[in-house]
Predict the structure.
Amino acid sequence: MSVLSSPRRIALVSAFPPGRQSLNEYGLHLAKAFAARADVSEVVVIADTLDHAEAELNLGPKIRVRRVWSFNSVTAAPRIVAALKAEKVDGAIFNLQMASFGDSELPAALGLLAPMMARGFGVPSGVIAHNLVTGVDLEQTQLKGQVWRQRLVRLGGAVITRALLAANYLTVTLESYRRDLAKRHPEANVLLVPHGTFDTEKRDLAPCQNRPLRIVTMGKFGTYKRLETLIEAFRSLRNRPGLEGLELVIGGSDHPNTPGYMASVAERCAGETGLVFHGYVAEDDIPDFFSQARLSVFDYSSTTGSSGVLHQTASYGTVPVFPRIGDFVDVCRDEGLDGANYAPGDASGMADSIAALLADPALMDQIAQSNRTAAVGIPISEIADVQMRQLNKAWQRPGAITTKARLAH
C-alpha cells in the first residue's frame, strides 16, 4: 500500500483536558472524532502544560497527549514545531482562538505563528479559527478606552491573520468571518465550517415545565462576559408572582484577565436565596448542568466568535436567552438556532424575555426541540471529515510529500 493511501498519523494542536484553557473540550471531542476514523492511525495531541500534576484522560490506544507549550509563554510556537518534527506526523490541525496562547498581546501573537512555521518545516497544516481579531469589538473588551493599544492590536491582528492564512487552509465558524476574509484576501483558502456539536446521542428531552425552575449561565467571566446584568434581572424576577422559587446557577470561572472577579461577585451576593455559584463545570457534568434547567442566559456585552456554550445549550435542549449582538445573531441565522433576546446591558429587558419564556412552556419545548435538531445535524464527526478532506488535498498536490518522506531524504 502506498504512503498516500495508508492511515495517517495526525497531530491536533489544542488546549486539552484536564487543562482548563479555552477550547479544551472542543479539542477533546475533535481528537475522539479523528481517532474514530479508519484513515487515521494515531492522533498526537500537542497540548498545553498543566498548572499542577493531573492524570491524563484514558482515551484509548489511538490518542496520545504530549504537553509541550505553556499559556503566556513566548516560546509556544517553536516548541510546537519541534514536537511536530520529532513526532514525524503526516499533518497537523490547529484548534485555535486568538487568545489560545496567552492573554497578553506578545505571547498570544507569537503562538499563532505556529501553523505557518509548521508548514514551512514541511508539516501540512490546517487551522480551525474560532474567532478573528477583525470580528471583535475591542471597545467592549478589557481594552476599552485604550485607543493606541486597540490600534496596536488591530495591526497585530492583521499580521497574525496573514500568518494563519499561510497554513495550507483555514476554516472559520461564521459566514461573516468567511466573507470578510474573502474580501480582504481573495486568494486565501478559507472555508466556512460550523462549530458542530459533541452530543449526538438519542435523547428524550424532558418537557421544560418538568425541569427545576432554574436558569443557568456558564463561561469565563469578567471581561465581555459578566454577571451584573443577569443578577439584577434574576433579583427582579424572584419578586414576580410565580417566580419566587426561581434559581440561578452560575457555572464557570474567572477570565484570565480578571482574576478574582467571580469571588468578588460571590462575596457581594453571599446569602442570596436561589443564587448558586457552581464553579468549574467538568465535562461529565455538562449534560446535567444544562438539561436540568429551563433557560441558559448569556450576559455578554460583545462576542468573539461562535459560542461553544450556545451550542451546548442547544444540544441539551435548554432555551437560550442572549443579547442582540453580532455573533449570536449570525450563528442563529447560519445554523438555524433560536431563542429570546434583549438589548445588551438591559436588565429589565433581559428579565422580561426570561419571564415571557417561562410563562409559555409550549414555546420553550418547541424551541428546545428545534435547537436540538439543528445542533445534532452538524456532529463533530462531520467537522473532522472536512478537516481530513482538506489535509488530503494538501497531501495530493503535485510535488507534495509527507513529513516522514521529507525527513527520510
About this structure: The chain has two domains: 8-196+378-408, 208-376.
